[in-house]
Amino acid sequence: MTDEETFTRLYYYGTVQMGMSADDFWLCPLGLFMDLWECHKQYVGIAKPKIIYDIDDVLPAGLD
User: Fold this and answer.
1) I need a labelling partner for 21 at 20 to 30 A (CA). Which of 27, 34, 49, 59 fits?
2) What is the DSSP letter of 53?
3) What are the pLDDT digits (tens) for 10-61?
């Protein structure tokens, strides 16, 4: 896949799938966009998170 094809796909994901405006897409840092895309995929059920936390894992022991 060429760079042009890759950015066309990313542009589609950002504007159509995630509802970003064209300016928001082009001004978004690539790393942030990839994080947002991964969160979007998890939200719609396409991907699963690498680590699933339980509330007991997040809060330290002794807090009630």
Assistant:
1) 49
2) -
3) 999 999 999 999 999 999 999 999 999 999 998 989 888 788 888 877 787 7
- Token look-up 């680590």 returns 51
Judge contact between 33 and 6, C-beta under 8 A: no
User: CB of 15 within 8 A of CB of 24?
Assistant: no
Collect all residues with Cβ–Cβ distance below 8 Å to 11 and sequence separation of at least 6. Answer: 22, 25
Indicate whether this model's pTM tops 0.70.
Answer: no
Token pair in block for residue 15: 């504007």
Check: CB of residue 40 under 8 Å from CB of residue 49.
Answer: no
- The CA-based angle 17-23-24, given to 5 degrees, is 55
Determine the residue type at 64: D
